[in-house]
């Protein structure tokens, strides 16, 4: 195994993402030691029990002497956590995060910054619908994109810090890209935030239809609905924060979505089969592009065979 | 292996569903012989090459002497195909289908009926986003629901026919339910038709955003979008027919969906975090009900581990 990229990392927030970073850093030798802190005492106890790394009872103890601090808390908590973390950090070390909205994250980090620390916001395009320390696993970031949104600081020190953080994520198996904050938030609004909102919404709609019983919705969910419920099972706090902090980009996508949906609705009402064929055929082409780009598997009946259990490590 | 349920079955339409019935009937010994016909000569050639069963060049030859005929064509083609099939069938045998809209299917079968044949519409709640003869596999129906919508004929012969068809699907591993046509179409509108429409729509919206490049949408699709593209890759002809023939139930669901979405949109615009939390938390409960009902797996990172290939038999 090559030398660790950081001799000590601190992870604040031991949920799905924090626990996955802890496991991956250990598994791939990316950090000499891993120290975690979580606001929630139960989470700390659980993190100790399942052996995620050293777990401290204060934020300050976790952060002390760390070369790099990873904030893995909901986006809405970033400002407070960053403000508490920075004073306890050693000069010249790195503060990064994994928040799904980079505008808010960058603002939170910048506000907390005192000029001694390298601030490098980041976002792994990897996750599951589960949350909490038990949900973490070492291979989560393998072959996934990791987006960094560095500031425009061009000092040699800052660029070296970005390079080191890049190396860390690569060691975890990720492919690293840099991007500006606004672009990130626009791209993720359509590829992640809108899909989640739609999934949350359709689940609510299904359960409020008085003409169909809830038991029937559950029973016959294999016709498509169950795929939406998987996405809609994601952490409510995390997603509330995403929508509250990426409001403009999400509302823009939502406006487009509703406009397009109204056109499909009209085609159905007036029996315009040609328009439906055109739209549905286009969707198939796009699916092919995603499989060709290695972003999904084209295997038949993907993961749904009852005799196959995915390897969860 | 127990005795076959039917000594000969005929399958009209050798696509995903037809090919899966052919493979399953052979694998589980549910039919003594399987004969297929497809309108498309290329499909017939392919069906022969991959050994789905005997393949005939005319509809009449396939149907002759069959105990049960399965119409596995798009819903919009059912009326024509049924009208051609019935005169070639032996008296007292069964005509069924697998169409996703039972109102239309029942009407098509009834119109074609000449009083000699038992008409029993059906719908397997199982499928994938793929189509064509190569997409079929024997385990598709295992542990899946199969809905039959028998007529109100209470003659002993008809009831015996329904029982035999039930036995056939059970032999393929399915759990069989009966339901009335209108209820089926209402339940499926929300559990299957609306989810597909939404998936088709979001894919179109994503690709029409000028503010984001298509390449970026593909690249970062793992954030949620890719799950929608899987559903949206489904056969355009099949889905056009579904929306044209289950119009009222789909429009009803769509109206509700848009109303609910407008409320979420308003909550985002005005920063109403409590309302978002409430809705998102509810969605999580529903997901749990689906996993408890055995309709999905709760395994972490379901099927997405690059090192796991689902067993496609
Ligand atoms: N889930 C995904 O798919 C995904 C993907 C990419 C990025 N992200 C981002 O990753 C971050 C974490 O998400 P996650 O999925 O790992 O969530 P999670 O499993 O819910 O974990 C978050 C953890 O942070 C703790 N926490 C909350 N506020 C805190 C604070 N002020 N100080 C210390 N700890 C605090 C939570 O404790 P409690 O027990 O009190 O809640 C929880 O243990 C979010 O910013 C999210 O946007 C998530
Ligand atoms: N896919 C699913 O997930 C699913 C699930 C449950 C039920 N269903 C229902 O199953 C039925 C078949 O769907 P599928 O997914 O199997 O579609 P598919 O893979 O596209 O197969 C349909 C086959 O029927 C052929 N066909 C079309 N019109 C015909 C005609 N007039 N006479 C004879 N053959 C004809 C098609 O030939 P071409 O090559 O010319 O198109 C194609 O080979 C549909 O009614 C659908 O609603 C589908």
From TrEMBL, chains A, B:
Q: Which PROSITE patterns match?
A: PDH_ADH (PS51176)
Per UniProt, the keywords (alphabetical) are: Amino-acid biosynthesis, Aromatic amino acid biosynthesis, NAD, Oxidoreductase, Tyrosine biosynthesis
Which is one Pfam family of this protein? Answer: PDH_C
Q: Which E.C. number(s) belong to this protein?
A: 1.3.1.12
* Broad class of enzyme this protein falls into: oxidoreductase
Q: Which InterPro entries match?
A: 6-PGluconate_DH-like_C_sf (IPR008927), NAD(P)-bd_dom_sf (IPR036291), PDH_C (IPR046825), PDH_N (IPR046826), Preph/Arog_dehydrog (IPR050812), Prephen_DH (IPR003099)
Q: Does the keyword Amino-acid biosynthesis apply?
A: yes
List GO BP terms, alphabetically. tyrosine biosynthetic process
Which reaction is this enzyme known to catalyze? prephenate + NAD(+) = 3-(4-hydroxyphenyl)pyruvate + CO2 + NADH
GO MF term (any one): prephenate dehydrogenase (NADP+) activity
Q: Does the keyword Hydrolase apply?
A: no
Q: Which residue range or ranges hold the Prephenate/arogenate dehydrogenase domain?
A: 7-298
Q: Part of which pathway?
A: Amino-acid biosynthesis; L-tyrosine biosynthesis; (4-hydroxyphenyl)pyruvate from prephenate (NAD(+) route): step 1/1
Q: Which family does it belong to?
A: Belongs to the prephenate/arogenate dehydrogenase family.
Please identify the protein, giving its name as recorded: prephenate dehydrogenase
- The source organism is Hyphomonas johnsonii MHS-2
């Amino acid at each position: 195994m090559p030398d660790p990229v950081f001799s000590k990392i601190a992870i604040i927030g031991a949920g799905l993402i924090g626990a996955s970073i802890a496991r991956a850093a250990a598994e791939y030798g990316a950090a000499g030691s891993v120290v975690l802190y979580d606001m929630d005492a139960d989470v700390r106890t659980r993190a100790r029990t399942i052996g995620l790394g050293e777990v401290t009872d204060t934020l300050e103890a976790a952060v002390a002497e760390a070369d790099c601090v990873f904030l893995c808390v909901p986006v809405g908590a970033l400002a407070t956590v960053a403000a508490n973390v920075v004073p306890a950090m050693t000069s010249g070390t790195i503060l990064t995060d994994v928040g799904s909205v980079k505008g808010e994250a960058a603002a939170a980090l910048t506000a907390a910054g005192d000029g001694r620390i390298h601030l490098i916001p980041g976002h792994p395009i990897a996750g599951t619908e589960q949350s909490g320390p038990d949900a973490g696993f070492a291979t989560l970031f393998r072959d996934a994109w990791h987006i960094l949104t560095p500031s425009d600081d061009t000092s040699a020190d800052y660029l070296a810090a970005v390079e080191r953080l890049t190396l860390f994520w690569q060691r975890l198996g990720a492919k690293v890209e840099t991007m500006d904050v606004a672009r990130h938030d626009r791209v993720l609004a359509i590829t992640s935030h809108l899909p989640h909102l739609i999934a949350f919404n359709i689940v609510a709609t299904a359960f409020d239809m008085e003409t169909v019983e809830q038991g029937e919705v559950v029973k016959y969910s294999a016709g498509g609905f169950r795929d939406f419920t998987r996405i809609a099972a994601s952490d409510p706090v995390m997603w509330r924060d995403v929508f509250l902090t990426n409001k403009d980009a999400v509302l823009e996508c939502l406006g487009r979505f509703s406009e397009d949906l109204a056109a499909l609705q009209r085609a159905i009402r007036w029996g315009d089969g040609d328009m439906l064929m055109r739209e549905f055929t286009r969707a198939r082409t796009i699916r092919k592009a995603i499989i060709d780009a290695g972003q999904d598997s084209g295997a038949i009946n993907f993961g749904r065979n009852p005799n196959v259990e995915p390897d969860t490590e």
